[in-house]
Amino acid sequence: MNPSNKKPIIKYWIIFFILLISITACSTTRKSSLYNTDKEDVPVKPSHPITLYADEIENIILLWGNQEDKNKEITGSDFYLFSELLSSAVYNAYWNESGIMFKMVAPDYTVSVSYKNKSPEENDLAMIWKEANRLKFRNIWYNLPEEQGKKLYRLLDKY
C-alpha cells in the first residue's frame, strides 16, 4: 500500500468518528429533562397560584395549635371571601426555587381547608405569616398582595 494513501484514509476515519459521536450525543431517543414526561421528576410550577372553589369546600377552620377548643370555623360570607383572598396569592419563585434553607418562626395563622367528597388526608393546610405577607399552601410558597393580605388578616382576626 502506498504511504501517501494512508493519510486520506486516516482523515476519513477521524471524520467518521466525529460524526458518529456527534450523532449519538444529539440523539432524540435520549431522555432529556426538558422533555421528560415522568411526573415525579419534573416539578410543576403553578400557572395560576391557588385555585379554591368555595363550592367544593366543606369547611375552613382556623386552628390554634394544641388548643382544639379554640379552633373556629370560618362561615357565611367570610367563607367565600377567604377563598377569594387566598386565590389572589402570587407564586414566590425565590423561596421555592433557590434551595436556600430558611429559619422559620411559627405562622401567625394556620387554616385547615376540608373538601367535600375527599378523604381527610386530602385536606389542605394554609400557613400564613404577616411578615412580608407570606403564605405556604400545598408546600408551595406564595406572597399575598399587600391589600389582600390586610383584608385576610382582618378576616381571620374576627375569629
Tell me about this structure:
This protein is of the alpha+beta class. The model is unreliable at 30-39 (pLDDT under 50). A hairpin with an 8-residue loop joins strand 1 and strand 2. The protein contains 4 helices and 7 strands, in the order H-E-E-H-E-H-E-E-E-E-H. Helices cover 32% and strands 21% of the residues.
Helix content: 25-40%
Average residue pLDDT: 80
Range of strand content: 15-25%
SS field, number of helical segments: 4
Helix/strand-derived category reads alpha+beta
Detail the poorly predicted runs. 30-39
Q: State the total count of DSSP E strands.
A: 7
Q: How would you describe the oligomerization state of the chains in this entry?
A: single chain
- Give the H and E element order: HEEHEHEEEEH
How widely separated are the two ends?
96 Å
Strand numbers in spatial order across the main sheet: 2-1-4-5-6-7-3
